[in-house]
Structures are given as structure tokens and as C-alpha cells.
Amino acid sequence: MASSDRSPGPMPPGNGAVPPGKPMTIGQHVLDKGAQMLQTLKPIKQMSQHVCTFAAYSHDMTRQIQTHHFVHRLNQDFLQCAVYDSDAPDARLIGVEYIVSERTFETLPPEEQKLWHSHAHEIQSGLWVNPRVPEMVLKSELNDLAKTYGKFWCTWQVDRGDRLPLGAPALMMSPQEVNLGIVRAELVKERDRKYNICTDDLKKSRVDILGPEMMNPFADYWKKTGKGFANGIEQIQMKLRAPFP
């Protein structure tokens, strides 16, 4: 069965487009524009921030990708993010990340905490950026986020050439200051050129941002064990009857 750490096999036939498919028709564009005018799309309109950062696959930390999070904060302790592979109009939705405060994270059982990563280094190092938003405006938000934890599932491994979302979702990890957690320099330089920023300068400006007073030992679990997580899809017997009230 499918597993997040295995090749999905042959790609779907087509002309090489990602995803495969014919160009949209004029009729489809008209329908979409009409629906957009008539419907509220309330959840999407609550996405108030764009964050560009990096992530690595839990089962293979050598595979690092640039990510674009579009953030919807539900309250001061919980954020949900639609994650894309770029900020272009035709960006592909590659996953979802949930972010919780330190207070909420500490209520989770240890086996659950092992699936989550910290954000302290990612923010302190300047890797986490809100493109085009001045640092002065963000400072309070960054102070809060440096103490949070995230769980990021990647549903479309575009970096390995998948033309469709194939196989099982993959658990992702955040950048860290040690060995496999260090983001490749060329990825950072490419991002910095695009947004005309300097990650090193951002790092210097964030020296006063503090992470959790005591980092939870189960977050970033790979740093302690050298082991990651892979998802497999298992065939099971279906429940054929709905339970009675």
C-alpha cells in the first residue's frame, strides 16, 4: 500500500502540465467569477497573513522545500495555515499546518507531541518572514510565535516531481540549528533575492526574541532520536453498520 516515504510510481499520462489537465474554458472563468461575486467565501477571507519559510520531510530531512503559509488565526492560542508551494496565482496547495501556543501544546499527550515541531529557531534565525511587512510591525507577533509549536502535513510532494497529490500525507519538520535541520544556503539566497531581504540582517534584528523558557523534550523529536516518521496506508475491514443512538 502507499506510504509517504516511497515513490508513488508512474505519473498520470498527459502533456507534462502540473497538475495534468486542459486549460480552463471561457465559460469556466465566467462561472467562477460569478460564483465569487455571489458567495461569501468567509473562511478564505479570514487568512490575514502570508508567511514564507522552509520545511523538511520527517522521513528524509535532506529534502527541504520553500513553503508559503496563508494564515488564519482562530484565537490567541490556535492558527491554521493553508500551505502552498509559492505565492503565485497558480500556486499549488501542498498541505496544512496547525499552530498552537505553548500553553495548549503542554496539554497534549507525549505521543502526540512527537509529531510537532518548534518555531523558536525558525523565527530567531530570520528564516520565517512575512514578505513586505516591516519588522517593526511584526515584532509583537514574532515574540508570540517563537513560543509556539506546529504540526504540518504535506499532501503533495511537488519537489519529487509529483504531478498530482499522490500517496500518503508526509509529516514535515521545521528548520533547526543542528545538522540536518540547517536550511541549505542556496534555498535561503533564492528566497532573499525574490523578496529583496537579507535573512542574516533579520536574524540580527531578532536577537531579543525568546523561545519557550524550557523547550518541550518531545517536540523536534528527531533531534534526540535520529528517527523520523512516515505514514503508511493500511487496508482494514469496513464497519458495515452505523451505531444506533
Question: What characteristics describe this protein?
Answer:
six-stranded antiparallel beta barrel, about 25% helix, alpha+beta, about 20% strand, 7 strands, about 240 residues, globular, 9 helices
Description:
A hairpin with a 2-residue loop joins strand 1 and strand 2 (about 60-75). The protein is about 25% helix and about 20% strand. It starts with about 25 loop residues before the first helix and ends in a 20-residue tail after the last helix. Strands 1-2-3-4-6-7 form a 6-stranded antiparallel β-barrel. The chain is built from 9 helices and 7 strands; from the N terminus they run ααββββααβααββααα. It is globular, with a radius of gyration of 20 Å. The protein has helices at about 25-40, 40-45, 100-105, 110-115, 120-125, 135-145, 185-195, 200-205, 220-225; strands at about 50-55, 60-75, 80-85, 95-100, 115-120, 150-155, 170-175. It is an alpha+beta fold and about 240 residues long. The longest helix has 13 residues, at about 25-40.
Identify low-pLDDT runs. Answer: none
Give the spatial strand order of the biggest sheet.
Answer: 1-2-3-4-6-7
Helicity, as a percent range: 25-40%
Please state the overall shape, judged from the principal axes of the Cα atoms: globular
Mean pLDDT: 93
Q: How large is the radius of gyration?
A: 20 Å
- Tell me the distance between the termini: 35 Å
Write down the secondary-structure element order. Answer: HHEEEEHHEHHEEHHH
Structural class: alpha+beta
Largest beta sheet, briefly? 6 strands, antiparallel, barrel
Put simply, the count of helices is 9
Estimate what percentage of residues fall within beta strands: 15-25%
Strands, total number:
7
